[in-house]
Amino acid sequence: MTRRRVVVIGAGATGLGVGVDLATRGIEAVVVERHAVGAGTSGRFHGLAHSGGRYAVTDPLAAAECARELAVLRQIAPGALEATGGWFVRTSDDDAFEQAWLRGTASAGIEVREVPLDVARAQVPAAAARARRVFWVPDGVLEGFELLRGLVRTLRRFGGDVLEGSEVIGLVRDGARAAGVVVRQGDREVVVGADAVVNAAGPLSGVVGRRLGAEVPVAPSFGTMLIFADRRLPLVVNHLERPSDGDIFVPHGETVILGTTDVPHEDGEALPPSRQEVARLVELGARFVPEVRTWRPMRAFTGVRPLVADPGAGGPRGLSRSHTIVDHGARDGIAGLFAIIGGKWTTYRLMGEQTGDAVASYLEVTAPSATRSLVVVPARVRGRAPTSSETLCTCEGVGRDELVGEGSLDRWRVEHWATMGPCQGTFCAHRLAARAAELTGGALESEALDALRAERARGVDAVAYGAQARLRALASEQRRWWGWGS
Asked: Which positions fall inside the FAD dependent oxidoreductase domain (predicted)?
């Protein structure tokens, strides 16, 4: 039997999850990505591995999905998860939502334990300062970049591939059937043939869908997040209230991330963070962790969620965090074209499995999904540079010998977290650019260096006060001195 081939659009968690699921069924999966792996929403989130507690009242389906899939993730990707646990902290006198939350967590199968206030205040005083009651849940921290690279390795192990720098611009048809896509790679156009096509482009799935000739019911939602230097909290801290802006802190590496806002955003592209949103986030976070006002912000960043559209939801907070699969054959008469939208990072595997079921059924492939028990091929574990290697990025401990391959600054940022530490590239970006030039045999990539510095600067500018203002001034003077732009 001829091996079937499927093109998956988008190399985020969802697209790679779909690709891996298809590949394990014996279907050749080619994931095409306009930029680099993790360049979109999957690389722009607060890092929460969801227990489901955040949705126990407002979105029971998503809560139950998160609870089940987090248990699976602990088995198949243990190296990408940090089991910090999480707290839900109630600060108000009104216990009505708390009671609804306790019923919802029980219904979703989420483990909950009350933490006595004296214990909470002794363990994490910053998080319990205003607490009326505190509950523990099995939240954790997800190392998204590590898991993304692990999924790429797993996909290739089963005969699939990822084509980065490949922007989809059109659909190839054979009559009423999808037969591949046309992608732009630099200044050339290439046809990638396939027996089916899956649109997993996240918040851009609507844009991609229109290029393919099919509308996708996605409702992009824009959010701002704030990174603080130093790991001030040892576990995830949620505000026990109806989900709202600025209601969660997630420890991540040596930092803490405060999230997030939720604003409708039809464009699908992430916007730069603003100082107004940063100031608002800090004040919202101070409602339940008051000392956040004294913490040093390192940078802000933004992301866009691909929520499932629902005109009756009354705004982004009312939209479900579950997912839906669109069969454009049944809906629009284009057989073999599918879209997957919505969901959470934590449920990427489930989304891949259910999309794989739909595609396999269309292709008449009977092999079942194998991803529930398939251990993801481990990616590099971040750590200090080996003593035999010159350290190029001091903040993240990235050594010269680790930076190999095509010499892409953006790729190194994703794979090794280079430039993502406290200095935000101020002291290391030029060394990384020199290493890239060394590997490619070309001149120092001034354009790539400028682009990297500009991307880092957008996040620093939004928090440019105190120590960060001084760091930003130093970076600007450095750029002026070396002629790297303003």
From this structure: 5-348
